[in-house]
Amino acid sequence: MFRFTRPLLNAARKPSTGITGLKVHRDPVPELKKTYEATLQALSAIPQSSVYRQGTEALTLHKLKVLEKANGNVAVIEKELDEGQIEESLDIAQDELSLAQKMLQWKAWEPLEEKPQPGQWQYFGKEATASSSS
Question: Do the beta carbons of residue 37 and residue 64 sit within 8 Å?
Answer without folding.
Answer: yes
